[in-house]
Amino acid sequence: MKITSPHFQKNASKAVSDPLLREALGLIETNFAGNRKEAIARLPEFDDLRDHAKSLKDHVIINLDLYLERFETEVKKSGGTVHWCSSAEEARNTILKLCKEKRARTVTKAKSMVTEEIDLNHFLSSNNIEPIETDLGEYIIQLANEAPGHIVAPAVHKTKAQIAELFYKHHKDLDPDRSLNDPADIVAEGRAVMRQRYLDADVGITGANFLVAETGSAVIVTNEGNADLSLSLPKTHIVVTGIEKVIPTVEDGLTMLRLLARSATGQEFSTYTTVVTGPKREGELDGPSAFHVVLVDNGRTDLVGTEFQDILRCIRCGACLNHCPVFGAIGGQAYGWVYSGPMGAVLTPALTDLQTAHHLPFASSFCGRCEEVCPMHIPLPKMMRHWREKAFKERINLTRERMIVRCWAFITLHPKIYRLISNLAASFFLTISKKSGWLPSLPLSRGWTYGRDLPAPEEQAFHTLWRSSRRTHENQQVHK
Ligand code: SF4
Question: Coil, strand or helix: which one is 107?
Answer without folding.
Answer: strand
